[in-house]
Each structure stands twice: as structure tokens, then as C-alpha cells.
Amino acid sequence: MKNTDNFRSVTIQIRFNDRVGFIADISTALASGGYNILSMEMHRAPSFSSLYIELNHNKDIGSITDLFNILKEIPNVIETKIVKSSKSSAEIEILEGFESIIGESKAINEVIKLARKFAVSDSMISLRGESGTGKEVFAKAIHSESNRSGLFIPVNCAAMPENLLETELFGYEAGAFTGAEKKGKPGLFEVAKKGTIFLDEIADMPLGMQAKLLRVLQDKKVRRLGGVKELPLDVRIISATNKDIEAMVADKQFREDLYFRINVLQISIPPLNNRNEDINLLAEYFLSNLNTGRHEGMQILSKEAVKKLINHKWKGNVRELKNVIERASILTDSDIINEQDIVFSDTKDISTHKNQPLKTTIAELEKNIIKNSLEAHPSIRQTAKSLGISHVALLNKIKKYSL
Questions:
Q1: How many C-beta atoms lie closer than 10 Å to residue 351's C-beta?
Q2: Which of 133, 179, 393, 402 would staple 269 via disulfide (CB 3.0–4.6 Å)?
Q3: How does the average pLDDT of the chain come out, rounded?
Q4: How far apart are CA 10 and CA 7, in angstroms?
């Protein structure tokens, strides 16, 4: 690629192998090259993770070649590619905000109104809601409409063991432990300066780590592992859980003092079963996004298909609905998705699908069940246990379906 291939703003996807300090490395390297990070979003998968970064250059015009040269020097990067770009900073697409939340029901609009009110403060926010209701979407929207100029950084507290979570959040000094980087590493609290840290699944944080987090939140200072210098903390904390955290406090499974510290402002996101009037809007939105990548023409939902969606009990909420629409779009050859094309994640619906051979339909259903389960569990071993298969069998299926 020639150096003349310049840009004013660009969004890149970085596929990488997870390791402590990776986000800090990326942020530091881009800043040293004069690049400003406008937004950052991470998606974790079993074999690798993806980081989506929207950025521009502090000299207005940036070079794609220079950008890629910086990124290829960072360890654990597998692949880097451009997702979208803009020739003018005025054309930067707003990817987050309350406008991204689809729904017209009274239940969701009341929550959006409350969240907008909370967004302008710096107080800690606790998001509650069933799995798949969109807690991270709300967290991003709150950050987007806040007065904070730094990054939005999501952290899955259930996905990492205590020692890894500690080094990820707090960072470490040179020589803090065997295998530590020679120069040390800043933690996410440092990287997120003037921004927001989203502590997802906070109820699953180990008790020992809860005590360390409480100290940081009380003192509003963070100290790297192995260090003596305390750095002032300028970051907004949003936490989320789908568990009954009050019951966990009563059972001594979650620290009461940390509970009161993070539970300053509470937002309960309604389940999809309480938002029936939003189901058609959400389904059409997801289908519209899928239609954008189709070459055979636009698909629409029949009235019977919509009725079936509305009558379904959504255990997986908005995430489950999105998967059902994606499954129907893939399995249906017609431009009209009918009632029989809506296949939920149970085997009794397989026989009703007439557009694909049974073997193909079962394979697609198995792939989606595994995909959903991987998203719902923090590790492959826990996913395998939930599915009732061995760890090795699950790894083979992940490879088979390229998940």
C-alpha cells in the first residue's frame, strides 16, 4: 500500500491472541504515532479476540501504511484490516449512543430516560438485567453521552482468573513477577484515564479481587503491582450483573462494602418478554443489517413469522432474537421469511423447516447452539460441561464450524 493512501478517520479490526497489557500496548503505540483513539470495542472468541478501533490523526491526515507498520510491531497481533474509513472528520459515523438502542415500548423508553439522566454525572452505575438484555449496549451509550473524553473499556470479570484480572486492571512494574515485561505495563485504570471502565459480570469477581477493587474505588488511586507510587484515578465505573447480587451479599458471596460502593445509581434493563411491542422492530432491524450483505435480494418477515416471534418466551432476550433472525435468514432461500422458517434453539422445531435437508438444518442448529453457549460461558471447559460433551469434543466442533 502506498503512503499516498491517507485518511482523516478510519476504523480497523485487529485480531489478536489475548495477553495481559495488550490494550495498553495498542493505546501507547498509537499515541506515540500521533493517532487519536475515538472509540474501542472488544469481542472475545475461544481461539482469538477482535479489537475494533476508530481513530484519526492529530495532524488531520494519517497514513494507512504508517498505521499498519506501528501495529505489526506489537506482539500477539494476528491480523489487521480496515473495516471502514471516512475522507472527512464530519462524516465519522456515530456507532454508539442511546440512538443505537432499538425500541418504542414504555419499558425501554423509561430506562433510556433514566440512563440519560445518569450519564451526565460521574457517579458509579450498576446495570441489572437478564443475560442478553443489552447491558453493554447501555454502558456504551452512557459513556457516549457523558462528559468523559477517554476510552470506553469493557472488562469481563468472569473470564479471567484473579491474578490475571489484577494485572489487567492495575498493571505492574518491571520485575513485579516472573515473566513480567522489562518496562512494566500500565493497567486498564491508567489506560482509561478520563474514560469509562465497564466491569461486566462483577458478581463473578473473586472475593480477594473484590477487596483490592474496593480499596481503589475508596481511595480513588491505583498502584501497579510491585510499585510504590499511587496514581490518581480519573475513570468512571459502570458495573453489570445478571445475578441476584443482594442474595449473594446475604450469603457472604459478595462483599457488602463493595456492593454499597458500586450501587450508587441502579438501572434495571427490562427482559424482552416485557417488551413485546419492540420484538418486530428489533427483528426488522437485525434482518435489515443482514440484508445489507446479501446479494440475492432483500428479505422480509411475514405476519405469521412476526406473530411467532412475539409469542415466544425469550430466555436469551435480545441476543437470542438476533440469533433466531440470523438463522432464519441463512436457512431461508425465499425473500419472505415465513412462520416455519423461524427455528428456535430446541430440536422440536427442526422438522418444521422445509427449505434445507435435515442434515444441513441440524448442523446449522448445532452451530448456533454452540455459538450461543460459548458467548454465555467464560471458558471452553464450562461451555462443554453445560452442553454435556467433553472438552475435546467441543474443541473439534469449534474447529468444524470455524467458531
A1: 10
A2: 133
A3: 84
A4: 7
- Single out the residue of 214, 209, 252 nearest to residue 233, CA to CA: 214
DSSP string, 164-224: HHHHHHHEE-TTSSTT--TT-EE-HHHHTTTEEEEEETGGGS-HHHHHHHHHHHHHTEE--
H/E element, 137 = helix 135-144
Domains of the chain: 6-86 (3.30.70.260), 102-268 (3.40.50.300), 273-400 (1.10.8.60)
Identify whether the C-beta of residue 7 lies closer than 8 Å to the C-beta of residue 64. Answer: yes
Give the Å distances, CA to CA, from 29 to 1, 35, 68: 21, 9, 11
3-state SS track over 356-386: CCHHHHHHHHHHHHHHHHHHHCCCHHHHHHH
Q: What is the largest CA-CA distance in the chain?
A: 67
pLDDT in tens, 234-263: 999 999 999 999 999 999 999 999 999 999
Distance CA 60, CA 11 (A): 15
